[in-house]
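Task 17 of the worksheet. Students: predict the tertiary structure of the chain below and write it out as structure tokens. Keep your answer in the requested format; marks are given for formatting as well as content.
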Amino acid sequence: MLQKDSGKNKPEGFDFTGSMTLLVQDIIATHPVFSHINPDNVFIAVSPSNGSKNGVLAKLRPMRFEGGNKTKTIRGREYTIPDININGVNILYVIYFHLPRFLNHGSQMNRLATVFHELYHISPLFNGDVRRLPGKNFAHGNSRKKYDELIKSLTEEYVSTGKNGEYGVTGFLKYDYAGLKRKYGAIYGDMIRIPASKTSQIQ
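Model answer:
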């Protein structure tokens, strides 16, 4: 079981985890497609990346196996996923954002779409498992293109509400990593290391 500090003594600079958490909470509260998600059980983390713009931008780590099970037998060996408890709350999903790569990718809209992409992977049952779509690739379904088109549509619906301008919860996404650092002097976020298991990480 892992515990996280209460965070009362945050360092100077831009709190990426705090700002992304507020954004995720707003998406869940305002977009009906994500109404099944309880943000209290979703942990936002940062993970270091190199300076390259190519590579994984973000990934979802489900904290349960298929069907929401905590254990799974693979080739005769049983695997158990450890409980992740942060300030008394059981975490069902961890979303990692790779910095600086995530902030250096595309436009503000591209970055926002990446957030939607990861949230959509969360199972409609909100049981710690991922959303399993029909087709050989259960993560994205039969067509990655159609998946990306759906994410684009959901992102545009959210933006069209007009509540998320420059000074709204999406405002920080207009900056690349260097720009955000110039504005605030430093960028920091919560990191978490989860003991190895056989759960997958969905990009």
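Marker's comment: Residues 14-188 form one domain. The CA atoms of residues 66 and 129 lie 6 Å apart.
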